[in-house]
Amino acid sequence: MVSTSLPGGTWTLGDLTVTRFGYGAMQLAGPWVMGPPADHGGALAVLRAAVELGITHIDTSEAYGPHVTNQLIREALHPYPDSLHIVTKVGANRDQQGGWPPARDPESLRRSVHENLETLGLDVLDLVNLRLGDAAGPQPGSVAEAFETLVGLQQQGLIRHLGVSNATPEQVAEAQAIAPIVCVQNMYNLAHRQDDELIDALAEEGIAYVPFFPLGGFSPLQSSVLSTVAARLEATPMSVALAWLLRRSPNILLIPGTSSTTHLRENIAGAALPLSDDDLTELDKIGR
Description:
Elements: E1 10-13, E2 16-19, E3 23-24, H1 40-52, E4 57-59, H2 68-77, E5 85-90, H3 106-120, E6 125-131, H4 144-155, E7 159-165, H5 169-178, E8 183-187, H6 196-205, E9 208-212, H7 220-232, H8 237-248, H9 261-271, H10 277-284
Parallel strand pairs: 3-4, 4-5, 5-6, 6-7, 7-8, 8-9
Antiparallel strand pairs: 1-2
């Protein structure tokens, strides 16, 4: 069992115990998640600081860079502590224009899993999320062929646990009918509450929900409400948004990204921000 003073405590992904406050590595790549970081040493320092601060859940993808964040993680942290669990995702590539074209055919998925193993320096991946939809968000459609491909790789011993990302509730259910999942990773925050029912259902099943873009897609009016609450609490809007997510449901895991060790510490402190019932009532109105 992992012991940590990080906000939110821990959660169990299958047989893996992770801190609910994790770290997302996407911002370690260059602008628009393409190419190397401007400050290579700074990127390594952030990863090492995350582990030193007790974080045991790092989120990455071979598509970030591409290849860049995985290589940085390996350089900074390999050989990995037994308590550290690295989560990656497959199902999208990068093109020369910085786009994210789908790559969910069986051959592409198998190649991506093996690339993740190689760049991270691992024999088995702790958790692989199947990225669905597109840059606009979840899109309807069957996940069977793609998810069954990952199940086959899991049966070969290359993957411990599976999840889905950018998925509709119907796709979550379809994946669960094929094989167990331990997490769903979707866009969700104070302003975008489309997954409220899904989060509650997953919590009852002991399945984690990992929101990305904790400050994405706010309207000016919604941002104004958040800023007002943050000013009253003498905190940043990001701190309030992270603290609210941890309070929203015990199965929510956070993976805020940053390329700054100072900002990393600020995010941890922010997520621990105490919110009163009145604060929660006011914040709850933003997405409704």
